[in-house]
Design a protein that fits this description.
This is ISXO2-like transposase domain-containing protein. The protein is of the alpha+beta class. The protein has two domains: about 5-130, no CATH class; about 140-210, no CATH class. It contains six helices and six strands. It has helices at about 5-10, 15-25, 85-95, 100-105, 110-130, 195-200; strands at about 40-45, 55, 70, 140-150, 165-175, 205-210. It has a three-stranded antiparallel β-sheet, with no helix packed on it. The protein has a three-stranded antiparallel β-sheet with strand order 4-5-6, with no helix packed on it. Strand 1 and strand 2 (about 55) form a beta hairpin. Helix 1 (about 5-10) packs antiparallel against helix 3 and helix 3 (about 85-95) packs across helix 5. The longest helix is centred in the middle third of the chain and has 21 residues, at about 110-130. The radius of gyration is 25 Å and the shape is extended. The termini are close together.
Length: about 210
């Protein structure tokens, strides 16, 4: 993520474009239901709302016809009056590694408001992290290494400097097979000496590859 170009793009966005961008990121709901049986709310301009838009019921048969809901309904930022453009700037700067002090200098925002935005963001990251299955434990070995994935059609032609992907690889190994990547695939041991260990030992290998763009 390029901080300067992303921030410049956000600055140039109008109110509707900011809403669309926030919806694509999952910060706001893309659709809104008026009630359990009525799902015909439409996004319309509404000057009384901080974002300039609101969801409005357009079903004449509904008892809540023409009633409005904030675009931030069911959002973590529902109770905040800070503009979405400012919130997005803070999130992007924080994700790019800027400190709180640097963010306060570059964004017109009070310290308590910044703390509230970052608190919401960090709590969401903690919740997602807790959903992940923990690695390691008694009898397990976890190895973390940096490598380069190379995509080539012929193995004897060597490695192309223009066709590569840097990756961070995390591998967990233990003495019990607990997960199968794909059934019905046979490993040909003769192709690579490193595969011989797979035939001698019943081991479980879980590999996670994260692409790193420089």
């Amino acid at each position: 993520m390029n901080l300067e170009s992303t921030e410049e793009t956000i600055i140039k966005m109008n109110g509707k474009q900011i809403l669309d961008y926030a919806m694509r990121l999952g910060i706001l709901k893309k659709e809104m239901s008026c009630s359990e049986f009525c799902k015909s709310m439409k996004l319309q301009k509404a000057s009384r709302y901080v974002d300039g838009y609101a969801w409005r019921c357009t079903n004449k048969m509904c008892i809540k016809y023409q009633k409005r809901k904030s675009v931030r309904t069911y959002s973590k930022f529902e109770k905040m009056n800070t503009s979405l453009k400012t919130i997005l700037k803070v999130i992007i700067k924080y994700c790019c590694g800027l400190s709180r002090k640097s963010i306060l200098k570059s964004v017109e925002l009070s310290k308590p408001c910044l703390s509230k935005i970052l608190s919401i963001l960090i709590n969401e990251m903690i919740i997602d992290n807790q959903k992940l299955k923990k690695m390691g434990g008694c009898g397990s070995i976890v190895q973390i290494d940096e490598t380069m994935l190379n995509f080539k059609s012929k193995s004897h032609r060597g490695r192309s400097p223009l066709n590569k992907t840097d990756a961070l690889v995390i591998v967990e190994v233990n003495n019990i097979v607990s997960q199968i990547y794909a059934e019905g695939i046979k490993i040909k041991k003769k192709e690579n000496k490193s595969y011989n260990a797979l035939g001698k030992w019943a081991i479980s290998i879980k590999m996670f590859v994260i692409n790193i763009t420089f």
